[in-house]
Amino acid sequence: MKRKMIVTTAGMCALALALAGCGGQSGDNGAASGTVPETVKYAISQDPGKLNPITNATGDGVQLSNFAYESLLSMPADKEPTGNIAKEWKATTTEATFTLKDDVTCSDGTALKASDVKATFDYVLKDAKDSQYNGVYVPEGVEVSADDSAKTVTFKVPTAQSFLAEEVGQLPIVCPAGLKDPSAMDSKTFGTGPYELESASAGQKYTYKRVDSYKSGLPSGTKITDLPKTIEVSVVADQSTQTNMLGSGDLNLVKLGSSNQDRADAAPQYKSTKGGSMPMSLFFNQNEKRPTGSLEVRKAVAEAIDRTEVGPTITSGKGELMKTLLPAGSSVCANTDNSAAIAKNDTEDAKKLLDEAGWKVGSDGVRTKDGKKLTVKILYNSTSGSEVAAGVELVQKELNAVGFDAQITPSDQYTNVIFSGGDWDLLISGISATTPAEWYGIFSGDVVPNGGNWTYNADKVYFSLADKAAAQAGEDSCPDWTKAEEQLLKNVTVVPLAQSFDKYYAKGFSVGTDQTGNFLPTTFKAA
Fold it and tell me: Which residue spans traverse the membrane (predicted)?
């Protein structure tokens, strides 16, 4: 079984798989009526590297992909899925059929056929097996068929999927020219979206030009000329610098985390849009060779941490403690509450657990066992911002207080670390998913580097509960998915910490967002 994940983080938005529920309300800061500029100047925090939309599921990579590529469905924030390439669809737990719109065209003018959609899935299954979408948007064992005359694509899976249409409906679709030479997708775009890549300077700027023939995915009442002619995307790692550039006019659209929002909120000329829930969670490396491969050690870690202190720190006091792995605003299994299953802060019991597991306190306060220190390495995204760094440092302090030798190992390439089976024990990250079924893809299957199970989770009780939930369709499956998530929390596979909300700021216009918090390029509106 090979399941994988989408990365959506505070610094990367995961997975795509990456995938967080978010609000899309527009906040009125008193800005006067404006216009959508000819050129939108936006910034991302990390250079996305290779632009292949199938193999790059980083948050910034997915945002750029959204300009040029489309999927069968669109997942707007706090709303039901809508047709993107597809005009209609029907699904059970084992079969989903999509009928394509009549006017979907590639940027090179080629009409998109149903067999082209199938070809993208075939590419993942045969040539891009390491894609983070394989096992999530491309379910294990899926059979895809296409009928060009009827314009239909049908997906059949051997194992029931609660949200089959929503999952296969999110894979970016690549046009024939891109699949003919997949290496070209690293530096060029081959999609059906409203923009195509015009130029790229790695680590500096990516420029997208409008495809004036585009019309299939435009919202009702919107003309292609209502959208900016050009989107310039600069790589600016520091959000404080992005805020300065917004003020100077070097940028006219920014996405800011909680610690950088006060300055923009105080400026009445900017229109703000909620850009997505940023749920921060603590993940455990359960490889039996790591200290955290022991349930007792994981429980001790969870009980040593005080979420009521770490949560406000990691969100700059603007967030809320999480009650579930599903982010706020999720349109699937809303109102899930697993608070009772989340480990409670109890330092004395944490010490007792470690004592019973054979980890004895040394003269320096650090525990040892069989001559080895109880060292745990805390990995996090180094570009996440000062508030995340402060939260990680607090976790380190709390763990050291019960005898751990907690070492912080920040990295701007932390996904490479976890997917390569690298050196880490604890990960504090905004990795998230929009459905509980997607969490199943994250926490199961073959372990890295051959598979996507980077937590090395082998909890058979969870697998059984998840299989039972997956056999039910849609919202009927939610009670059993809640039980499966409860088992994840009891097994201390993950500890949900807290979530805050990013915001987009623009002068004279606004944007709409999808469930991951990325802005949708067809939603520019004067404000």
Answer: none
